[in-house]
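Title: Prediction job returns without error message
Component: structure pipeline
Severity: low
Priority: P3
Assignee: unassigned

Description:
Job completed but the reporter wants confirmation the result is attached to the right record. Sequence as submitted:
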Amino acid sequence: MLCSPGRDILELQTTPPHPNSNAMVGVRAGGASRTKLAESLGDLRGTVLFQLLDDFAGASLVAPWVWSNWTPDWPPTEGNKGPARAQMENICTGFTAGSSGFDEDGHVNMVIQSSAPVEDLNDPADPFSWHDLMEPGGPEMRRARRLDVWREGGVLKADAGFQDSGTTPSGGRRAVHEYRVHAEVDEQSGLLKQIKAIPLILPFAECPGAVLQLHRLVGQPVVELRSAVAVTLPGILGCTHLNDVVRSLADVPTLARALV
């Protein structure tokens, strides 16, 4: 995929090829790209390819943060401030009115964003810990996620991990978002029985509060979470990135069909 600085999709090639992939070209990342994805490639739901294309909306939004690791004065220049308060206020828990995420000038305070060093996802002692990861030189942003599913007594249990991290000049990585999510799904009814999130790394003090609202999803069909999350956890009830993790749980029934 090739996209513009404004997050418009300029080119897209998929493996395996899909006859409707060109429908995504020209679409901007975000709600528009997810709507077009559902319309044009909805038959891919439950596949890794669909998840990758769905993730472009959130991952491309976070990607510019990597420059904070590489540019000492990022972004204090007058022309390179964060988005204005008017654009961001109340769009999520972290940017609730009065949040520490806003500076006195009414912009997102990108200078005080929290982040933390993280270890390599690959475990040398476990060759199956992760798939091979590209390690390009220079600034590089990565959204890594996993979803493990198993069955216990008629209940599907899921453990999801999510991390947005970027390279640093020293060779290590720092993360700006990291969550763990545990969920249980009644296999017969397909309803979400239980869900719990553990916030590990987040940019502002208010962000972890989003996990307190996940109970609102309990009792809903898990296969409908991609659409239900936006309706149930809009605005200050949710976190953009936690919502992304929870939306992926819609694939739990598909993965369960592969269980022995």
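Comment from assignee: result matches the submitted record. The longest strand covers residues 173-186.
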